[in-house]
Amino acid sequence: MQTFRTRALIAPLIAVAFVAGCKQREPERHPLPEPQSSVPITPEAQIAAAEITADFLRERIATFSSDEFEGRGPATPGDTKARQWIIEQLKQIGFEPGGADGSWEQPFDVVGITTQMPKQWTFERGGKKESFKWWDEYIGSSGIQAERGSIKNAEVVFVGYGIQAPEYEWDDFKGQDLKGKVLLMLNNDPDWDPNLFAGETRLYYGRWTYKYESAARQGAAGAIIIHTTPSAGYPFQVVQTSWSGEQVELPAEGEPRITVRTWMTEDAAKRLVALAGHDLDKLVEAAKSKDFAPVPLGIKTSLDFTAKLNRSQTANVYGVLRGSDPKLADEYIIYTAHHDHLGIGEPDANGDRIYNGAMDNATGVVQLLAIGKAMKALPKPPRRSIMLLFVAAEEQGLLGSQYYAEHPTVPPGKIAANINYDGGNIWGRARDIVYIGMGKSTLDQYVDAIARLQDRRLTPDQFPDRGFFYRSDQFNFAKIGVPALYLDTGTDFIGKDAEWGKARLHEYEQKHYHQPSDEISDDWNFEGMIEDAQLGFYVGLNIANADEMPTWTPGDEFEAARKKALEEVAGE
Predict the structure, then answer these.
(1) Are 456 and 430 in contact (CB under 8 A)?
(2) What's the mean per-residue pLDDT of the chain?
(3) Which residue has better confidence, 299 or 471?
(4) CA 487 to CA 433: how far, in whole Å?
(5) pLDDT score at 10
(6) 335 beta partners
(7) Taking Cα atoms as reference points, which of 134, 184, 174 lies closest to residue 154?
(8) What's the confidence (pLDDT) of residue 572?
(9) Burial class of 382 by CB neighbour count within 10 A (0 to 12, 13 to 18, 19+)
(10) What is the radius of gyration, based on Cα positions, of the chain?
(11) If we measure between CA atoms, which residue out of 417, 455, 441, 452 comes closest to residue 30?
């Protein structure tokens, strides 16, 4: 699951149009409909779904997350081996190459950047200095694709949330000249008023990618995001492991960029603003007003770093099951799961340097393969075509799905839906499934009907403040108008008390997420993963066989993009 690693500031005009031109207010939620006969589980589908077994899942997850693949870091030998393994699996289940030229891969160029930041970062005001330790107090990387970079005597300015949102009459910059400065900013977006932004539901404005893009559009030299566990949704150790080592980006194409992208602990940020005679808590409070204006801190800083650049390639992998209806076969259901993880990085307390990524995201990859196996087992293929798309470099900023969205092999207006798997249920059967994107589209009808037929219910995003809809690959499909969803692990486990599931998720996040310890274990229970994969199979099958494609909820932020995509294919 991508949360932290940096990315190139690709297509800034697209980003600006999305965040400034689309109304980001959450659409009104309506009660989910009762199950309809048009969303069935047929006997033939049930037989096919039985191909999704614990043995199939366990065996392949164990292989794909083994040390043999070296953590599947993008553009590494482990990445190449992982892609080859997926291709062999696609051949085994009977899928065809996804490329029009008969290829299994969609390659794209990437730039790997390994930054050597200074061990101490020093700030000065009026002859007084404060220095902050790399790793313990700040983490950062180069924002430019160059072997050297520096900022010289740059002024530090506190800019609140660093957000410009005209639709909310919100502008943290107030027209001030911030060129060449270092912007100190808060994580997340305003969350105290349900009528402002989306209340506790995080929007794209709250994502770290937006923060750095926003700073770049101001001409800033650098940006510092103040980390807190509540505002980020993860501890600082995740920032440490995710932002150390090689960072992979798409090649720069002339878009605005900042020289350095950094994170700082809350305690360190308090010391920094205290150097200027300010109290961080009071600055945070001031930032909650629309009237807030940037606060120059009178602090200057310089920083020099070196970077090793590695220009290489990675690739998305795709396989296709052609649809059986001549009129609908050129329309697709695209399932996605990212095949990459963090590769080889900083060792843990046991000296383990391989970030295996078993949960994140060997489980997603293998669930897609299992769904594909079930689709192929049907006596007749679905009416629409099915694509299994295994995207690259998700952990680096959703790069593989971004590249596919910008270079689609299927016109967006011909993609009926995107169903994304990022993680899997390893704790057993649950009475629910968490549905990221609930209320945003008519996909609700399909997911809810199938869940009810499984004697389960839908649970909306349990952590809306973390902005999960904008943190995995379905986001890039939504941006081009495709109705998209992300199916996540339920929290109400059969035979367990109400808090047991959340406790398991919390334990995983605190101990194993983006750590070398994310490995398969003998105590994994695959019963819930089977049901979740079967649900995705049934949902995709019924969308593929429906007369009409799903639509966004009226007023949704992605509705306009869908209208444009449909108009483009209608004019062909």
Answers:
(1) yes
(2) 90
(3) 299
(4) 7
(5) 29
(6) 388, 419
(7) 184
(8) 67
(9) buried
(10) 23
(11) 441
Taking the C-alpha atoms of residue 348 and residue 369, their distance in angstroms, rounded to an integer, is 31
Task: Please state, in angstroms and rounded to a whole number, the distance separating the CA atoms of residues 412 and 2.
Answer: 23
Q: Per residue in 390-430, pLDDT tens?
A: 999 999 889 999 999 999 999 999 999 999 999 999 999 99
Domain boundaries, the chain: 12-110+311-570, 113-309
> Which residues are bridge partners to 390 per DSSP?
317, 337
CATH of domain 113-309: 3.50.30.30
In the 8-state DSSP scheme, what is residue 368?
A: H
User: What pLDDT score was predicted for residue 37?
Assistant: 42
Pair 327, 485: CB distance under 8 Å: no
Q: Is the dihedral of CA 476, 479, 485, 486 positive or negative?
A: positive
CB atoms within 10 A of CB 11: 17
Report how far residue 177's alpha carbon sits from residue 198's, in angstroms, rounded to the nearest whole number: 29
Q: Are 283 and 295 in contact (CB under 8 A)?
A: yes
Give pLDDT tens digits for 1-12: 554 333 332 233
pLDDT at residue 466 tops 80 = no
Q: Which amino acid is at 47?
A: I
Report the predicted TM-score, pTM, of the whole model to 2 decimal places.
0.81
Superfamily of domain 12-110+311-570: Zn peptidases (3.40.630.10)
Output the CA torsion 49→55→56→58 (10° steps): 120
